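Human: I would love a firmer grasp of how sequence relates to backbone shape in proteins. Take your time, and here it is.
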Amino acid sequence: MTLSMYVDAARWRAHQRAMLAEFPGLVPVAKGNGYGFGNVRLAAEAAGLGSPVLAVGTVREAVEVAGAFPGDLLVLTPYRVGEEESGLPAGRVVRTVAHSEALASVAPGTRVVVECMTSMRRHGVSRADLGRLPVGRAVLEGFALHLPLDRPDGSDPVAEVSEWVRAIAAAGLPTATVYLSHLGARDVARLAGLFPDTVFRSRIGTRLWLGDVEALSSRATVLDVTPVARGDRYGYRQHKAPSDGHLLVVTGGTAHGVGLEAPKYVHGMVPRAKGLARAGLATVNRTLSPYSWQGRQLWFAEPPHMQVSILFLPGDSKPPAVGDELPLVVRHTTTHFDRVEDRPA
């Protein structure tokens, strides 16, 4: 009995091919929980796409996927001075460096991409650093620009990238390859027209693997169905049932990421009002679950357990049977599925 993600493999891969056509030179990204698929699965998919480079988040992830991907592995987390690098496949790893001190300390011959301090202001070298980068020890394979998702000030991302390309060239450094994150295909095409001697390579994960939502579906197995009458007590905290109905025990708990929520940036009055309403209901122990039955979104009967959740189904609905599957809507980047299965064509 599992928490499952089903994949329409033909449709999923067609979306990937469309992305490759939209972003020439695209670099697939496989990191974290592998966007719900697992990094090894995504590494094999990237190999099947013919990509010569796969971006991963950490050294540990590079070691994990090395056997499934035969090409180069670009580690996105910047190299730290003295960092342990055992287990990496020799000659196939490209390290990101974001500080002059880190670049000066890499082993001779290390392949590197230099991260620049964009308006994201997360990490990277400044424009003033460019002219004094100690590039002699390393093999410089390009520069990387990690850009913000939103621009409420109306600034032009193409202008920001252009300023960096010109600054890199002015410092006497090669501009043959620039890696980009969070830039649309139209803007990448504009940059290609402005700088025909530079190859712009988009690093894409979420949109590549999760961009066609109709190709993916999540399902939870019903493990138990228990009738309750109004006022019956149940669960760890012995709450009272609000009405006649059924308690559904289903797969998916905190170990899977169900019921856990990362902070979100909220735009506009309507989303803010909805957030306030959800917070108000939570104070009286009323929380909507991501699970549905017969088109009806269900409430958690109590907070999710480690590996299962208990849902309340009102008495006016016919309950599912043990072994049935309930659809649920979850955030793939924070969910650990028990099974990822391709649906037959």
Summary: The radius of gyration is 24 Å. DSSP finds nine helices and 18 strands in the chain. The CA atoms of residues 292 and 298 lie 6 Å apart. The chain has two domains: 8-211, 214-343.
